[in-house]
Amino acid sequence: MIKCELMRIFKSTKGRLIILLMFLLPLIDFIQHIYNDIILFGSFDPENHPAFTSFLSGSTMGHFTQILLSFILPLYFLLLYADSYTTDRNSGYLKCLIMRVGKKEYYKTKFKIAAIVPSVIMFFSLLLNFLLCIIFFHSGSSFGGMEEYYHDMNKWFIFGYNHPYIYYFIYIITYCFVCGLCSVLGLCFSIIFRNHYIAYPVSFFVWIIQAIFPTVSEIPYNLLLSTDLIIIFQA
What we know:
single chain; 235 residues; 73% helix; elongated
């Protein structure tokens, strides 16, 4: 069943478009840095550090790529796979699958795919963005002026400044982990409501409320939408 569900994602036009978009947004962010830091200023010796120019740092003007991805993340994952339960149920395919593999195996597979596939896709997307930044901005050392506050920062910031590559990679892993949780959240709402028109807005509302009112759920918000190098969406 796992193989069939994976093929269901990668062979569908909808799945391919979502995967393409998940790779495209970090790539657009990288191109923005190339334009602003190299082409616009005519300097092939950029000053910004690769970790600062990478996608999760949100250092591009306007942060529109981060907003387009992170703010509506559950909708991408619902379109990718998380709403497949509702599709199975409405088409009658659910009964066939449960008769063939059993209810326990069906739900176990659903949650595995929902958690792992989006996380893996996002990991390779962010890793590609990071590697491109390392290649093109390898000579940079600036963190947008935040290094001037080095002695006033906490130990986590100091660690990040001294080990920026390790620091950023930790954020990639964290982001991907939360992406898996976000996808599972969408699947849960799909199972509960059994209706696309309810599952999508409820998933979006539960997700966006954390960004609008971070004190409601401070830990996931800080894990996903902020770094100590630069606070996304607040510049």
